Amino acid sequence: MTQILLDDWQTPFGLPPFAEIADDQFAPAVDAALAQGRAAIAAIADTPEPPTFANTIEALELADGKLGQVLGVFYTLAGSDSNPAREALQRDFSPLLSAYGSEITANAALFARIEALWQARETLDLTEEQQRVLMLTRRSFVRQGADLEGYAKDRLAVVKQRLAVLGTQFAQNLLADERSWFMELAEGDLEGLPDFVVATARAAGKEKGAKGPAITLSRSLIVPFLQFSPRRDLRQIAYEAWVARGANGGDTDNRDIAGEILALRAERADLLGYDSFAEYKLETEMAGTPAAVRALLMQVWEPAVAAAEADSTRLTAMMHGDGANGDLEPWDWRFYSEKRRVAEHDLDEAALKPYLQLARMIEAAFACSTRLFGLEFETLDVPMYHPDARAWNVTRNGEHIAVFIGDYFARGSKRSGAWCSALRSQQKLAGDIRPHVINVCNFAKPDEGEPALLSYDDARTLFHEFGHALHQMLSDVTYESISGTSVARDFVELPSQLYEHWLEVPEVLGEFATHATTGKPMPKDMLDRLLAASTYDMGFSTVEYVASALVDLSFHDGEPPADPMLRQDELLAELGMPRAIRMRHATPHFAHIFAGDGYSSGYYSYMWSEVMDADAFAAFGEAGGPFDPEMAKALQTHILSAGGSRDAAELYTAFRGRMPGVEALLKGRGLLTAA
Ligand SMILES: [Zn+2]
To answer: Could you say which of 61, 267, 285, 465 is catalytic?
Structure first.
């Protein structure tokens, strides 16, 4: 069995020799890399030498080098070009890797060395970056329970195990409720629905074994149905079924599960010495404390409610004009809001599309980074893992900075969505390692000889992912564990969401949004409508989102509620939730926070990032404009090159001179006038 995956690759830029890698090489390579990692960890833990930063922390940084190399290739292929063999491998690797991770944090001898270094940190003469890596390493061990003993240690293991079971059950119940409900439609009930909704409803009916078309609880069908169906009675039935997911009684009811999860999380935090689960979760985030999160959300809440109430009055009048009586209900909002959008902001998508060519939008993303950071891009002819993946050599003043790979077209073997990943991250500990960064998207592939065209959302996605890529490519740190995008969850979307703003710069669209056949720039009227449409109905979407984020925070901050549904209702009443808007995700189907703990006390983070990107882009406006060289330099120095080398709040403050304020976000969402 060849071990090519474990070799030091003698290829251009050290890129993986994709052509020589076969699927059956992955399992033995992962086994071998895990064995190497285990041997390296044991050597660190068991050495008779007293602990030093080099023989412990740096050695730990380097212990998994080969594993990272193998998995970098594997997860690139599994995500963007999968097949049954790769799917099976993915299922096999997941428990192996999680067991390996737990083994390391449970290694008492290893933790004792880290703890000894931590206690002696003042005397070790460490650089600022080394102090940070030591702090982060110790903290991740402690958060896993490495310094617990006896009852607390055993109980933590039981609590974590039970939480894992409950999280899975919550997700499965939700799925069961979503799958079991559907509403058959008669042909006449399809009136008013656009073709794509009719087609989706017919396909759904067929899948459910119904006689005709059907509405299901899948977001991609029910939301457009609520938007377009003029049948108020049917909208109500569908809406009520949609918001009852996870709260239908019987075996699939999630309400008690939510209560038990919250109690166990509070206990977990208590065992680890935190005041609440929110305190535990937010310790690693930029926001830092529940109070900071609440303060931000409340600043946005007030103007959002004001805007939503004003919109509600408009929509109610439209509804009464239609001859429907009474109050605007939650199942009416999307329908009248869509009617209003068409009247005020309609964009002809078909006329817009030829102006957004993929090739020109890639050029635009590159050109902005040339003006801002001096980066240059040259096509590379190297073997890739798929013919649609393209590579560029990224340089500055002739010096190699990174390899950038763009894999833009949808295909059956690619998972949905868009993402940025690295085959190799920047670091200096193992030599001057420059990154290999990939952007993966799912844009429609054109017919042979036709230009690839994007929607405006697609173009934003392209800029978004390129922003993440810049965070990786411009990284300039010593240690891989804090390189590039290895930062707090509520900070990682800053570079990506910030970069989207350059697409909105009129001179960028003016230069690069040229018509595929005529070559003419986009007409001004179209450009204006395009930019205005992005803030439409922001009162509604901000209210439904912030309400969910505030409920999430309240559940995890302080005593866990005995009855989460009651706590939710009390909180919404206190906040003055507008009657025709409900939470984007109510408790019994709030999978972000209950199906695993990824976003628990963290649902706010989408808005936190948006506050920062709006505020950060405003800084360019306050200086010399979107390409102000001083601001670009500050952004590069303090954010794009810095990785996780300092606390996120410190990095932001270094860039901006202060912490972010909400004004720019409110302005961007069109909520400022309503305040
Ligand atoms: Zn992102």
So the answer is: 465
The single residue listed with the structure tokens 């042979």 is: 448
**Distance of CA 440 from the midpoint of ligand 1 (Å):** 12
Amino acid at 231: R
pLDDT at residue 498 is higher than 90: yes
Rounded Cα distance, 232 and 550, in Å: 30
**Contact call for residues 163 and 155 (beta carbons, < 8 A):** no
- Which range is most confident: 27-36, 341-350, 526-535? 27-36
102 vs 84: CA distance, rounded Å: 28
Of 362, 221, 370, 282, which is closest to residue 557 (Cα–Cα)? 282
Q: Are 113 and 44 in contact (CB under 8 A)?
A: yes
Q: Is 544 a catalytic residue?
A: no
- 468 Cα: distance to centroid of ligand 1 (angstroms): 7
Ligand 1 centroid distance, CA of 438 (Å) = 13
- Residue 266 parent element (H or E): helix 255-271
Lowest mean pLDDT among 5-14, 86-95, 391-400: 86-95
Give CA–CA dist 101/512, Å, rounded: 46
Q: What's the pTM?
A: 0.91
Measured in Å, residue 206 CA sits from the centre of ligand 1 at: 35
Please report which helix (H) or strand (E) contains residue 672, including its range.
Answer: none
- Provide the H-helix boundaries in 504-647: 506-512, 524-533, 538-556, 564-575, 591-594, 605-622, 629-635
- Convert the pLDDT of each residue in 113-143 to its tens digit: 999 999 999 999 999 999 999 999 999 999 9
